[in-house]
Amino acid sequence: MDHITPDFLVLGLGWYAVFLIAITCHEAAHAWSAMLLGDPTGYYAGQVTLNPGPHISREPLGTVVVPVITYLLNGLMLGWASAPYDPHWEIQSPRRALLMALAGPLANLVLVVIAGIVLRIGFHAGWFHDTDPFTYVFSAQGFPTEIAARIMVLFAIMFTLNLILFVFNLIPLPPLDGSAIWPVVLSPRALTRYLEFRSQPSFVILGIIVAASVFPRVFWPVESVARRLLELS
User: Fold this and answer.
1) I need a surface site. Which of 14, 16, 84, 92 has the fewest CB within 10 A?
2) 27 and 165 Cβ atoms separated by less than 8 Å
3) Whole-structure pTM value
4) Is pLDDT of 87 > 80?
5) pLDDT, tens digit, for every residue of 64-77?
6) CB neighbours of 161 closer than 8 A, spacing ≥ 6?
7) DSSP H helical segments within the chain, as ranges?
8) What is the pLDDT of residues 9-52, one digit of tens each?
9) Could you say which DSSP state residue 117 is in?
10) What is residue 173's DSSP assignment?
11) Torsion angles phi and psi, residue 8, rounded to 5
């Protein structure tokens, strides 16, 4: 692991801080919107909070172990968290459940916009010079020493990671948020079969595998458009 250098570890701390913000906002948005729409399960579980502690306590594997391992292996921090909800409420109120599901990715989109605004302000204020902060998102080689430049790298990570979460979670395959569309559009008979399949772990694993294979084809065009809108040049 020759790539694990002091700069790489420093960048990793930035990645983890951004990762916690992203998943905390995502899951808090799920729980908060569910509460407003009639399912207080997440609220009573303490998930309507921007404090990452309850989210880490609920999913320590997905919020601590897996992110650290994936970053050390390939420089990209992956993981997950979850907010509980009432599955009976989902079946009885599929449209409300869809809005609850969409709240998580929308929270990530808001963070993308916030990061983009800060990056634009930083660019025009001269907080980084000829170097594109996105250069360091996946590589700590030549990591800038200026505090302002490092802050801009953090916001470039926030922009990228939240865009990844936004696009990935909208793929309509279980267990991703986009799959909440199926109870809305399927006939009662087809929905019954779908729910039977969804309850099987093998079906969920297959959904993740297919979503991961489809994701690059969906993400890179979206990322290209988002970067053009950002116009850091």
Assistant:
1) 92
2) no
3) 0.94
4) yes
5) 999 999 999 988 89
6) 15, 18, 19, 22, 77
7) 6-37, 41-44, 52-58, 60, 66-74, 87-92, 94-125, 147-169, 182-185, 188-198, 201-230
8) 989 999 999 999 999 999 999 999 999 999 999 999 999 999 99
9) H
10) S
11) -65, -40
